[in-house]
Amino acid sequence: MGTAALARSGARIMGTHLFPVWPGASFAATALPVRCAPGDNLAIHVAVAQAQPGCALVIDVAGEPEYGYVDEILAVAARMRGIAGLILDGCVRDVSAIARTDLPVVSAGVCVRAPGHDAGGAVGREILMRGDPAPTPVRRGDWVVCDDDGVVCLPRGQAAAIMAAALEAVSRDQEVLDALGSGRSTLDLFDLDPSRVTGWEGAPAATGRESADRVSS
User: Fold this and answer.
1) Taking CA 13 as the corner, what is the angle to CA 11 and CA 19, rounded to the nearest 5 degrees?
2) Closest by Cα among 77, 78, 94 to 86
């Protein structure tokens, strides 16, 4: 299920500053929240060592993104542990090597600065990820979904309802796509008023149902 459909159906949108490190990276998994101390990734090492296979680490870097919190070594360790993916509100390094592991990693950027490994942090406790329009809380057991369009969170207890609504949205989208393939117009299908746009000259004769009865050119 794509993140765009899930977001339209009630999933919480994580920040638009987050992108997959390599194109095509995608996953859906239950979240294990991680909070790092600023400039330190000890908590990520601890989380990787104790995470259940199939979960995803969602990592809050305490407002200090400009460190390479995840590198090739951590990516390989996470891959060997069976972790589904990593989402961190901070930077990574060793981008090419991370891509070679095939581990889906979502980050806010790239930074060669190495973090420390001794300042503590927390694993399994609720975190806040920068989101749109407000910070997104992530708890252990929430679902997180990532694809090329972004990252969303489905709170535990709401995931089934969000998924059902998203399936309906995808079905409606397919009906629209089928209608477009038969020559219909988005103006017609969505009952849009093109007269609000300066320069509207009327639909050409080949565009399906005539819309001149409800607009003035």
Assistant:
1) 130
2) 78
Average pLDDT over residues 116-125: 95
Task: Return mean pLDDT, the chain.
Answer: 90
Structure tokens at 50: 């104790």
The count of C-alpha atoms lying within 13 angstroms of the C-alpha of 198, restricted to the half-sphere facing its C-beta, is 0
Collect all residues with Cβ–Cβ distance below 8 Å to 86 and sequence separation of at least 6: 56, 57, 59, 70, 75, 78, 103, 104, 105, 106
pLDDT in tens, 173-205: 899 999 999 999 999 999 999 989 988 988 765
What SS3 state is found at 46? Answer: helix
- Identify the bridge partners of residue 122 per DSSP, sorted by sequence position: 35
Among candidates 128, 118, 72, which has minimal Cα distance to 96? 72
Straight-line distance from the first to the last Cα atom of the chain, in angstroms, rounded to the nearest whole number? 40
Two tokens at 19?
């992108």
Q: Quote the pTM value.
A: 0.85
Q: Which residue has the tokens 């007269």?
A: 195
Distance CA 64, CA 68 (A): 11
Confidence of residue 8 (pLDDT cuts 50, 70, 90): very high
Element (H, E) at 160: helix 159-181
